[in-house]
Amino acid sequence: MTEARDPAGPHARRVPGTPCWVSLMAHGLDATEEFYGELFGWEFRPGPQQLGPYVRALLDGREVAGMGHLPPDSRLPVAWTPYFASVDVDRTADTVRLRGGTVAVGPLDAAEAGRMAIAADPSGAVFGIWQGSAYFGTAISGVPGTPVWNELVTYDTEGVGKFYKSVFGYEEEPVASAGFDYLTLRLDGRPVAGLHGVGQALPRDRGPYWQTYFEVADIGATLRQVSGLGGRVLRPAHDSPHGRVATVADPEGAEFSVVQDPR
């Protein structure tokens, strides 16, 4: 996982390809705000209105993530979606199409904040593209309640790795472990995201997907709180090279992971 603890801030442009934002589309926005507000201590502000019913989650007054209302007829899943920085979202969207991906939403303007699109890689995993104007992304990291890592869970990393490398210019670093299919994506030598190939272990009813990890102070307390708030623990806490990790789902089924940093 990334070792970077301090983001560039909301008014500094991210290196293209850097994960810069995460957003959740849900059916019941009020109940979703209540769940994550209790779990992570987030507060919420509305907007931008061009995205429909949408709120920004804040921690200590600084933006952390976004949440929007998912129309009943939408084909998008109830899921957390990472956004990757771009200096020209229209050009990046064209590259996505040329490399075998699809663009489901946009590109479109999000008021004065910037310009965005929602796309999918050739395997169907959904991700966002963000071209910041007045706002460039998550304004705080390295503390509980903030996103710390994004990882693509997919069939295998070889083909889809070429897609992300051609779209965002990543360097790839395979994990040298027998029977473990994992690529770390790097920009300027810095790890920014991961691709995890799980083969046939991928759920048939879901397909490949991006998973967001959020930092927590006490993973045991967090899992108890998830259950108490109506969510589910999908994979209990276990040790990893990056700390104690668990996978959970909110009351609508949006899956995410939580990690307690060992430092």
From TrEMBL:
Domain VOC span(s) in chain numbering: 18-132, 146-261
Domain of life from the UniProt record: Bacteria
Xref: CDD domains: SgaA_N_like
Protein name: VOC domain-containing protein
